[in-house]
Amino acid sequence: MDTQYPVIAKRGPFRLPPNLQRYEEAREQFGWDEVTSYLDGLPGDKWNIAHEAIDRHLSGRADRVAIRWLGRKGDRREYTYAELAEATSRFASGLRALGVGKGDRVFLLSTRIPELYIAALGALKNGSVAAPLFSAFGPEPIQTRVSMGQGKVLLTTEQLYKRKVAGIRSQLPSLDHVIVVGGHVDGTVGFDDLLKEGDPVTRSEPMDPEDMALLHFTSGTTGTPKGAVHVHRAVLHHYISASYALDLHPEDIYWCTADPGWVTGMSYGIIAPLAHGITSIVDEGEFDADRWYRTIEEQRVSVWYTAPTAIRMLMMAGESVATQYDLSSLRFVASVGEPLNPEAVIWGTKAIGLPIHDNWWQTETGGIMIANFAGEEIRPGSMGRPLPGIEATILRRDDNGKVRLNADGTAEEETTPLTEGELALRPGWPSMFRGYLGMEERYRRSFAGGWYCSGDLAERDEDGYFWFVGRGDDVIKSAGHLIGPFEVESALIEHEAVAEAGVIGKPDPVAGEVVKAFVALNDGWEWSEDLRKGLLAWGRVKLGASVAPREIELCQDLPHTRSGKIMRRLLKAWELGLPTGDTSTLEGEET
Ligand code: ATP
Ligand code: MG
Description:
Elements: H1 23-29, H2 32-38, H3 49-53, E1 65-70, E2 76-80, H4 81-97, E3 105-109, H5 114-125, E4 129-132, H6 139-148, E5 151-157, H7 158-165, E6 177-181, E7 189-190, H8 191-197, E8 212-217, E9 227-231, H9 235-245, E10 253-256, H10 263-275, E11 279-283, H11 289-299, E12 303-306, H12 308-317, H13 319-322, E13 332-335, H14 342-351, E14 357-360, E15 370-371, E16 385-386, E17 392-395, E18 421-425, H15 440-444, E19 447-448, E20 451-460, E21 466-471, E22 476-478, E23 481-483, H16 485-493, E24 498-508, E25 512-521, H17 529-543, E26 551-554, H18 568-576
Helix pairs in contact: 4-5, 4-8, 9-10, 16-17
Bound molecules: adenosine-5'-triphosphate and magnesium ion.
């Protein structure tokens, strides 16, 4: 925990009153029944995410722009809620005509183009399961995931089909149809043809709330990606969490930079903003500091949800780039995916005029669990507090990392503030995963003593704010101390030369492990013996000798997952000359 950063007091006066203002009161009064009443549902206690996201808005917001797409080369396309309803209806009925029905898995492998959004929502409308893949995956990860998920349909683009799918198609026996966006390809169904022949008014298939809706693969940061199963009822949490933790208001222009290949891009890039009936920006392009700032300026983005890796890149580009743009439309900025260094929270206040609100969740949780809120104080470096409706705790672990149980079988909760343990959640919120596909035992192992155990280590302070320590697998044990890599990385990036850092434990005969850091430098800096020594000394001053890195090495291209997380397990494997394991989610890799 980093206490040197002052708390950012409750802000205000607000341009719009935050949705969550009296935190304790909101928690006390919260009930899922009330959230249910904010949404439609379908007759007979049936649900469909697509209905809540699209058709619900046909009375009242039909002409509001749902998706404004910004093409890579400057082209633009817009879909109102009415147009999106029609396109998804056509897609859903097209699937039906192909013999694809309830529960069948529709895999999505596409760059960020409107057809991807139509297909995802159309599949849900049809009662099929939407299973997103990342468009940069090579043939092997595609084959593994489609086989695991028993994909019946794959939606992709002409180019991706030819490059990645055609060669493995014969090895995918479950795959009955490939739908292709773009030109005609033999043996596939054309997306445009499917839409042309489809029924423009198709009702959303009434689903049991517990029916499977989404299949998401985890990021593979710590090992082989797992397929997490989510259900239609999850939309209750998508909706309410976006109210509380993203502070969505009806007239917002919202931009989630995450790709729908990952859970953030689906839960908060597609479902939640649409469930709120607001306008979402979808940018086909990749990260570029000028492009991103220009997008906020031109589109008058008011709520922005991004990731620490992007924020670190914006920091690298320099505050002076940010100040060239008019970012005054922004009202709220949030981040997820990795720990957000306190430095980055403060940078936000200087460069874009707003603090960045960190929040924490996982593929498994389906939605935001712990957050810094618009109307509450922010503790830089903290993930914030649990959302209303979410009970979170810290569980004690034994020396082998197993959760300790009381005599009655319940788990031992940590009662001493700022003592680290496993971050756990009380099961029962609607977007909780219902299983790891094909990994029953792994799923069961995620629960202990009445809690879902996240695998992350954290601390809770006396006011209920949670502080991330590290992933269970990444934590370093050095001479009796438990050291979270995040704390060390945060200290290093405070040095003016350091843009990003990845920290691992390196086996050591005396200490068990010693801390080793890999750093990427900011523009204009060169690696030298003096700088290395300077950084070692900086670490000792900031962290104390027992926590400071013992070794520091330059690694200008730190390995990241495609969703932007530092892959410490690869740094470790490289350092120790060990096998690298599953690298399907490694950025830049085409397997
Ligand atoms: P895998 O489970 O395959 O190793 P992954 O855990 O990275 O991959 P995700 O579900 O995409 O897959 O990521 C969730 C994890 O990301 C969390 O468990 C946590 O370790 C990290 N994370 C997400 N948000 C935050 C945050 N705000 N602060 C710290 N860590 C975060
Ligand atoms: Mg995980």
